[in-house]
Design a protein that fits this description.
The structure is a single chain. This protein has 2 domains: about 5-50, Signal recognition particle alu RNA binding heterodimer, srp9/1; about 55-90. Helix content is about 45%, strand content about 20%. It has 2 helices and 4 strands. It has a 4-stranded mixed β-sheet, with helices on one face. A hairpin with a 5-residue loop joins strand 2 and strand 3. It starts with 6 loop residues before the first strand and ends in a 15-residue tail after the last helix.
């Protein structure tokens, strides 16, 4: 069986700007419904559709930033714990070394 890619769908924030971009590349638009733009690209079809309204996109951005901030905090906490444990592991303990003073006469 020959493997190939025949359809790619892309959700975009600004449908008209994306349409103008692909038309600027010389891609030929194919007729379709108003809320989806199709382009023939060789043996493949690319479909563009509106991903979100602006309010929904902004809300997604806020959620994404919150998740990334949380991940950064977890990474910082894990790094701090690891640094403390490695420092304890690599620091010689006081109870295992004894100084021996030898007096020579």
């Amino acid at each position: 069986m020959e493997q190939r890619l025949s359809l790619v769908t892309l959700g975009v924030a600004d449908l008209e700007a994306a349409r103008r971009f692909y038309e600027g590349l010389g891609w030929t638009p194919v007729s379709g419904p108003d809320d989806v733009h199709f382009f023939q690209a060789g043996c493949m079809v690319v479909a563009l559709w509106s991903l979100r309204t602006s309010v929904q996109a902004q809300a997604d951005g806020v959620v994404l930033h919150a998740v990334l901030d949380l991940l950064a905090a977890v990474c910082a906490g894990t790094t701090a714990v690891l640094a403390v444990r490695l420092t304890r592991l690599l620091t010689p303990s006081a109870g295992t070394h004894r100084e021996v003073l030898v007096a020579v006469r």
